[in-house]
Amino acid sequence: MTSGTLRVAIAGLGPIGSRLAKALDDGIEGLELAAVSAQNIDKHRPWLDKLGKKPATLPIEALADAADIVVECAPSRLVRSIVAPVVTRGKTAVVLSVGALLENDDLIALARKNGGQIVVPTGALIGLDAMTAAAVGTIHSVRMTTRKPVAGLSGAPYLLEHKIEIDDIKEPLKIFSGTAREAAKGFPANLNVAVALSLAGIGPDRTMVEIWADPTVTRNTHRIEVDSDSARFSMMIENIPSENPKTGLITALSVIACLRKLHAPLRIGT
Known about the structure:
- With 270 residues, the protein is α/β, with parallel strands linked by helices.
- The protein contains eleven helices and eleven strands.
- It folds into two domains: 6-124 and 250-261, Rossmann fold (3-Layer(aba) Sandwich), CATH 3.40.50.720; 128-246, Dihydrodipicolinate Reductase, domain 2, CATH 3.30.360.
- The strands form two sheets. It has a six-stranded parallel β-sheet, sandwiched between helices. It has a five-stranded mixed β-sheet with strand order 8-9-7-10-11.
- Strand 1 (6-11), helix 1 and strand 2 form a beta-alpha-beta unit.
- Helix 4 (79-88) runs parallel beside helix 6.
- The longest helix has 13 residues, at 249-261.
């Protein structure tokens, strides 16, 4: 590792983590892939062995000591065990399972106390820069409507709890209406975007969310409407799903873009 190079570790090697690992191996200025962690690391050894420089394979609890930046690409239940050691050491945790921060909001205080930082990439959303700018003033309302293919919502806790069957629907069905906090709890693998939006704006209890299971669409679609004292704006994005239908392909690219900004001579966006 050369002077000034930051070591990056990745927790979780699903579609996002594996793509990020390969991008780091191809080269991102000022960064080096130092370590990875996965529930079944042997499953990933064939492609890990093909990387130019093989990262260390470590248990989650060891990543904070092996890297300067740890990127969480894991199930939401593991967020605390990944992030707490990182920020306690005054390092940076990049968090994708943003919904878990609502149940572990003390991690923010822990980061503040120890000089660490929690970074939430834009992910599958659009317009977080506009939202954070509007939040400097007064935001009156935020509403997000999400439409996803049935496969991207199947098995969500909210559906199981309320015995909502969507596998055989033939037309769009509204399956949820409530706050971003409630959406994150009921759809932990699907609505991290709603939590990111809420944290950038007026919070998880005032950000309103509708979710539709839609057999007529093939992309994860989010429409956002914001009314504030500085601007009124609406945004829509249609994300192509990754190998995991619950996750948009652009999410992995967003993490790569976020890391590239760390050493970029020109940085665009807030």
